[in-house]
């Protein structure tokens, strides 16, 4: 009742203001001061009370924010609908993925016109064989606001499908099993998992990863036998260190089950013969602080990508019967100017994914013969290994894209070097990549470092300082945002926007040092790099501060918050999606998902030096009374990665302190979490809202 009264009263005020043609006033969160003291320093958090998902007053406040957002954005509803239709009209509704072969079957997914979800299918032996529908997610999702299939796997005998389902958007998956001969679901159902099941070769034993119900940490590898009670499942491995997460997979040969246990800086792997699930897993190399490695297997060797005496990683191998690092021998040496990011093994070939001068390359190395690189024509592009399930094959499959080239899947014959385009993402409505230009440009950071940016715009755009522009950034966890194609970006480009990705420090576009220079006590580089990139776009005539917008999500939302605290005058508007903005309080609370696993990324504020450094950039802690750009902030009530109360508190504090009249709106997905809606078209609604916010701030009514 309290919730309804709060919301109805707020809506009445909105309607009254509209009838009087007065300015619509945003909701005002009450202040309940809470003192947070550590290291002799006290922070007063007036909005700590919003950290109560079950509190009706909290829900009422969030609903009032949504009502305010709806009311102030009401004049853009027609524009939002147009943008939605514009993006959706470019997406092929009846589509099919490129099939891949596994254990005698070709697997693929397909979508049908007017339906939000896909169908998972397979054909036996040949693509001309009869289609077998394994899952119709449209049927499964009926009655749910949110429905996501995490991953799926099929037993070695091809008879049982295991698949994970999340219906809350909290990334708590229940694993179900389907008899593919009868079409019936088995009684086995395993809750609170990461969503994936890995089969032993007996087709009845499965392994899965169990989460902690509160912290959502992936902490246990469990073993289940089909047809037995889930309560009887055995713990195969428990990771006691709360800074680590665990996972399990099979070697590409299907010979071994491999358990990985990883933190930000340290790895440890175990293995077991997949034909003998009754056995015990053996450690490959016991964990050593800051020793990272990953593993696959070829014949009698494990191949190991590692940073052992190699900041940019190198490739080693070791016999299956002597796996500790003393027995490792070098296959690919470390190189200062090349970041070795991934590898794929085949019976007769080794394929490396490397990054040099910020550009990804594919390097093919026959076990017997001369190595070579696969050539690509564009200046700025992205290329990655695709689904390569077959071990005994001469064909390597990869995905290629650029900011003008739609995602394309190729089969590459490693013996003949013949490249076959299997599929290029079809863009409806007459898209022509030749109408757009993409290139790499470089800003100079405040310390003199050159920061690369990938940009795209429609040909004909002039560097006269008068173009609208959107700059995107992330810059954390070593995650590199590669330049890629986006259908959703076209409405902006076709309206004359310049779109830029700032490859700031904290990613690994230039290798591991680029990451090291943007984490822990170097984190401020990430934020100043982004602002320097924005300033460069202005100085070089791509845009001006009255037409420049910034966008970032999750850790990229932290980027947005920190950047506008430092230099709000650079931006006309900012979109902060599911932003991580209350850094200090979150990193002090080890009950919150992700906290313990991220001490090596941000630092542990229980240590004084990290506390004060973190406090110096935490967006929530650094909001002050000054002008800020127009802002759109989003969150999900059930967000498992960044809890909703972080942006909720941030918005409330901004409303209280900012001295400008610029628009600040808060959009809360009450049914979703970190990744937004689950349907394949629902996400467009939020994108349309973001673009309408930008265009409205520019006075473009369309």
> Considering DSSP H and I runs of 4 or more, what fraction of the residues is helical?
10-25%
Biggest sheet: strand arrangement: 31-32-34-33-35-36-37-38
Spans of at least 5 consecutive residues with low confidence: 1-21
Count of distinct strands: 38
Feature tags:
Rossmann fold; alpha+beta; disordered N terminus; 702 residues; Methylamine Dehydrogenase, Chain H
Care to give the gist of this entry?
The chain is built from 13 helices and 38 strands. With 702 residues, the protein is of the alpha+beta class.
Characterise the protein shown here.
With 702 residues, the protein is of the alpha+beta class. Among the domains are: 140 residues, Methylamine Dehydrogenase, Chain H; 259 residues, Rossmann fold (3-Layer(aba) Sandwich), CATH 3.40.50.1820. Helix content is 20%, strand content 33%. The strands form eight sheets. Strands 31-32-34-33-35-36-37-38 form an eight-stranded mixed sheet, sandwiched between helices. A seven-stranded antiparallel sheet has the order 8-9-10-11-12-13-14, with no helix packed on it. Helix 3 packs across helix 13 and helix 7 packs across helix 8. It starts with a helix and ends in a 5-residue tail after the last helix. The relative contact order is 0.10. The N terminus is likely disordered.
Q: How are the SSEs placed, and which strands pair?
A:
Elements: H1 2-19, E1 34-38, E2 41-45, H2 56-72, H3 77-88, E3 95-96, E4 100-102, E5 105-111, E6 119-124, E7 132-136, H4 137-140, E8 148-154, E9 160-166, E10 173-179, E11 185-199, E12 205-211, E13 218-225, E14 234-238, E15 245-250, E16 256-262, E17 267-273, E18 282-283, E19 293-298, E20 301-306, E21 314-319, E22 329-332, E23 338-345, E24 349-356, E25 359-366, E26 372-373, E27 382-385, E28 395-401, E29 408-413, E30 419-424, E31 436-444, E32 450-458, E33 469-472, H5 490-493, E34 498-502, H6 512-516, H7 524-539, E35 548-553, H8 555-566, E36 573-577, H9 583-588, H10 599-602, H11 608-617, E37 630-636, H12 645-657, E38 664-669, H13 682-697
Parallel strand pairs: 33-34, 33-35, 35-36, 36-37, 37-38
Antiparallel strand pairs: 1-2, 3-5, 4-5, 5-6, 6-7, 8-9, 9-10, 10-11, 11-12, 12-13, 13-14, 15-16, 16-17, 17-18, 19-20, 20-21, 21-22, 23-24, 24-25, 25-26, 27-28, 28-29, 29-30, 31-32, 32-34
